[in-house]
TrEMBL record:
Keywords: TPR repeat
Listed Pfam families: SEC-C
Gene3D superfamilies to which the protein is assigned, alphabetical: Tetratricopeptide repeat domain (1.25.40.10)
UniProt key word Oxidoreductase: no
Organismal lineage: Bacteria, Pseudomonadati, Pseudomonadota, Gammaproteobacteria, Chromatiales
Name the UniProt record assigns to this protein: SEC-C domain-containing protein
Organism expressing this protein natively: Thiospirillum jenense
Highest taxon of the lineage: Bacteria
Alphabetical list of SUPFAM superfamilies matching this protein: TPR-like (SSF48452)
Residues in TPR repeats: 208-241, 484-517
Length: 637
């Protein structure tokens, strides 16, 4: 039995009747047996004396319920009084001759029992102020898990009501739990004010903890410049804190700077090897993992708090993702697909709201992809197991999720059907629910779940369509929607990662497969072309949609022509653009302009809303082109 187990057994015996004499008798007889003390090296009297002394050390720091959970240490006897160990001899003739009595840390017992005490005992101990301050965070965590954030906050707030510079690192966990309670209560302003106060008035270690929390908040909201500034402050106040290593890897991984994250993980690992006992084995294991795979390391770090179904899905993907690509059959759809379906009318686009679709694209025979018969059978069984619906029309979230993560018997279906990875329809369902999961937006989950699902789907499509590069898969055909939606999701992932070359290729592929472009990807493609100075491609794209009302295409052609030195033609196109979307120049030319109030009737072409959104997306590109805004101002004066 370990020392900790022995202490817990002793505490249980103390709590049984809280009688010192009876406990000492128990300790003399039982503790030596619990610790398996060697009979050959110790006499029976020595074993009993050692058991008693260890028991007394436990008794002296054990909170006693009958005294309001405060300990009642025994008094050291005088030389002529009976020895504490229960030997019957005088103290001067017994333990006084063997040096100082064993002593245990005063908060040790609380540290071992606070998580397991019943609620009525916790309330009694709190009433008598018996629980050490630094362990109140553990009580507050219990209350948070029981959905009592208000009680948790009320318990911890007094810890920070006084001089913050006098508080040490033991209250770091209390700071974190208090912030968690504020999150549950939706007290974001109060949390922010509290953290700022700690950064100004706290001790160095608490300042670092507050800056770490502020950095994490900014990472969650995508404000990476603020997150980096807060991280730098945390690093300044606690340069050797292992939490800063985890924070920096998280910050870099959230921005998909995986190579730099590997370098920094290597730096931190080398640093902690030179400073012994600073970083735990768990931290060093994380850094070793992060050197190989930063996203995977973060996913593993958060595994304990993650939805177990997400973890099971991740494990299944690892097992099946390398299966050979299946062969789908390419078939002509008959009758030809309509341009619109009833569900597409008046539905907001995933990227760009209500913009009239072009009607002038050349019509090509639309095809469908048919899975092999074995996959069809799996799909038929899948729909009986999987309760979530497909996204409605052009949306990306399910119309109804039907608590698919709560009733996740479908994960067992996947485990028993590895070939489900060969179904575009099932991959579409998985991508939809991963995207919709509360944790699905975390970068490391996107990397380990959503991205492999979408990349598998696109690899399957590329393999099946290799012999038909000009083939179209019209969105209007329901059968084609899973494939197109997966392609679109992978574009969003690549765009967020800053992999613009890959993103452009996917947008071009989407337009080729579905030239009616219900998703409005032509606008995003135009912006990518212009940001990468692919001006000739930008002009060709704009001319494919001459009647378009998306500002990206209408004004993108102006920018591309100007860059190529075709100023007269650019002026003519600008004149036409102003007739169709007159508010754009006003919003581009102003250095500062107030955001317009949203139109209650929704987004419409030519509105201030549209002009504002285009300004936000592309004004930096216009400003960077020498003379362009002055030229536009002159022509629009």
């Amino acid at each position: 039995m370990s020392l900790e187990q022995m202490i817990l057994a002793a505490v249980a015996e103390i709590f049984r009747d809280q009688n010192f004499s009876r406990f000492r008798t128990w300790a003399r007889e039982t503790i030596p047996e619990l610790l398996s003390l060697d009979d050959e090296q110790l006499t029976p009297a020595e074993r009993a004396r050692l058991g008693a002394l260890l028991g007394i050390a436990v008794w002296n720091v054990t909170p006693l319920p009958q005294y309001g959970y405060h300990p009642q240490p025994v008094t050291l006897p005088t030389s002529h009084q009976p020895c504490l160990c229960g030997s019957g001899r005088r103290f001067a003739d017994c333990c006084a001759n063997h040096g100082d009595l064993p002593v245990m840390p005063p908060d040790l017992i609380w540290d071992l029992i606070v998580d397991d005490l019943p609620e009525d005992a916790i309330q009694t101990a709190l009433h008598h102020h018996a629980i050490p301050d630094h362990l109140l965070a553990r009580v507050a965590t219990r209350w948070l898990e029981a959905n009592h954030p208000g009680r948790a906050a009320a318990l911890l707030e007094p810890l920070f009501s006084g001089a913050l510079d006098q508080l040490d690192e033991q209250l770091e966990s209390a700071l974190d739990v208090l912030c968690d309670a504020y999150d549950e209560l939706d007290y974001s302003k109060k949390k922010h004010q509290f953290l700022l106060r700690v950064t100004q008035d706290g001790s160095r270690i608490l300042k670092a903890a507050a800056w770490q929390r502020l950095s994490t908040i900014s990472i969650d909201t995508g404000e990476f410049s603020r997150a980096h500034a807060a991280f730098e402050q945390a690093l300044r106040h606690a340069p050797n804190n292992p939490a800063n290593a985890l924070l920096e890897i998280t910050l870099l991984a959230a921005q998909h700077h995986n190579d730099l994250a590997r370098e920094r993980a290597r730096f931190w690992q080398h640093k902690f090897r030179r400073i012994p006992l600073v970083a735990s084995e768990r931290v060093m294991t994380f850094l070793t993992h992060a050197i190989r795979d930063p996203q995977g390391a973060l996913a593993a770090t958060h595994a304990g708090a993650m939805d177990p179904v997400l973890l099971a899905l991740r494990d299944w993907l690892v097992e099946v993702i390398e299966r050979p690509l299946p062969e789908y059959t390419v078939e002509l759809h008959n009758p030809p697909a309509p341009l619109f379906t009833a569900t597409d009318q008046d539905i907001p686009l995933s990227l760009f709201q209500t913009a009239p679709l072009p009607l002038s694209n050349p019509t090509a025979a639309s095809m469908v992809l048919r899975p092999p018969p074995a996959i069809v059978q799996i799909e038929q069984q899948w729909v009986k197991q999987f309760a979530a619906s497909k996204p409605h029309a052009l949306h990306l979230r399910p119309l109804k999720d039907n608590d698919v993560w709560e009733h996740a018997h479908w994960i067992q279906f996947l485990i028993h059907h590895p070939a489900a990875i060969d179904s575009l329809d099932i991959l579409d369902d998985l991508a939809t629910i991963i995207y919709d999961h509360p944790e699905g937006g975390l970068p490391w989950l996107m990397q380990t779940l959503l991205r492999p699902v979408c990349e598998r789907a696109v690899a399957m499509m590329t393999f099946c369509l290799a012999a038909n590069p000009a083939m179209q898969l019209a969105w209007a055909i329901e059968t084609n929607r899973p494939a197109l939606r997966l392609l679109f999701r992978l574009y969003l992932i690549y765009a967020e990662e800053g992999r613009d070359d890959h993103a452009i290729l996917l947008l071009e592929r989407l337009l080729q497969l579905n030239p009616h472009d219900q998703h409005g990807v032509r606008a995003e493609l135009m912006n990518h072309y212009l940001r990468h100075h692919q001006n000739a491609k930008a002009i060709v794209l704009a001319q494919q949609f001459p009647q378009d009302s998306l500002a990206e295409l209408v004004y993108g052609e102006v920018l591309a022509l100007y860059r190529l030195g075709e100023h007269d033609q650019a002026a003519a196109v600008l004149t036409n653009a102003i007739e169709r979307l007159p508010r754009i120049p006003h919003f581009l030319l102003r250095k500062r302009i107030k955001r317009p109030l949203p139109n209650p009737s929704g987004f419409t072409p030519g509105s201030d809303d549209q002009a504002w959104l285009y300004r936000e997306a592309m004004r930096d590109v216009w400003v960077a082109e020498p003379g362009l805004l002055a030229w536009m101002k002159k022509l629009t004066a």
